[in-house]
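SAMPLE LOG
Freezer: B-3
Tube label: C17
Construct: single chain, 308 aa
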Amino acid sequence: MPSTSASPYDPTRRARLVFTDLDGSLLDHHTYDWSAARPWLARLKAEGVPVIPVTSKTRSEILPLRRELGLEDAPFIAENGALAGLPLAWCHARLDRGPGPDGVAIRTLGVDIGFIRQRLSVWRERLGLGFTTMSEMPLEELVAVTGLAEPEARLARLREGSEPLVWEEGDERLAAFRKGLEGDGLRLVRGGRFWHVTGDCDKGSAVAWLTERFASLRGSRPRTLALGDGPNDIAMLEGVDQAVVIRGCHDLTVAPTQASLYRSVTTGPAGWAEGMEHWWGRDERRVGSAEEGEPPAEPGSFDDGVTA
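STRUCTURE (predicted):
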């Protein structure tokens, strides 16, 4: 468990950003509890380090979670990179509209949900595929599949740039489905409970965009750390300076190409805190090791894993 006392603010220290998956990472896969991560969230807030959710969740789901987690000053990336939410301090005067009533300006990084749903309908009929999209699920079924309460399940349906679906075919038919979607400029990404259909975007491209936005506004590049537990997190984990693969509640492989990689022993928010402690804990030398040309810390080990 890290100390919750913040280090004295040092204006010469390189700025840092934390990008984090939510379900199965910062939030427990089954209960959505995050108490094990609370001390680290408090420490990062005191040190002025933005913790940026990067998730398959919708904007409507993220907004109340930001308040609960104390992350309202940070931006977020929703629907696996389809859109970014920017608080005022992250907005560019010439490039962004001002924040809306919810306090964020929305930047679309993918394609419209109407196009995605139309093409899904086409490919289901053309290939005779069996799948059920989240928007088609009865509410009670969605509650049962996700473990969400009914109000939160309703928010999960408010998609803007991606459509989750439950695949009802064997793996052998995925290739034809994926090829058809790619012809439309769409991607099929594996999450935990769902497959996700998005535009030509992913968590990695969205993280790169947001990092560039920070650098252009602040005049310097930040040190970046990302934490996630699923295959849809791989691009994000590969695009940062340091990464944590959190042990998942699944048997799916998560193997990013990343030299500075730590694998947690514990799952969910406990694994999240474990990863933070590994990279940015009491041994502050680990924060600067990559800059100084030192070899990365020895990663832990565990059975690879994922969730959406």
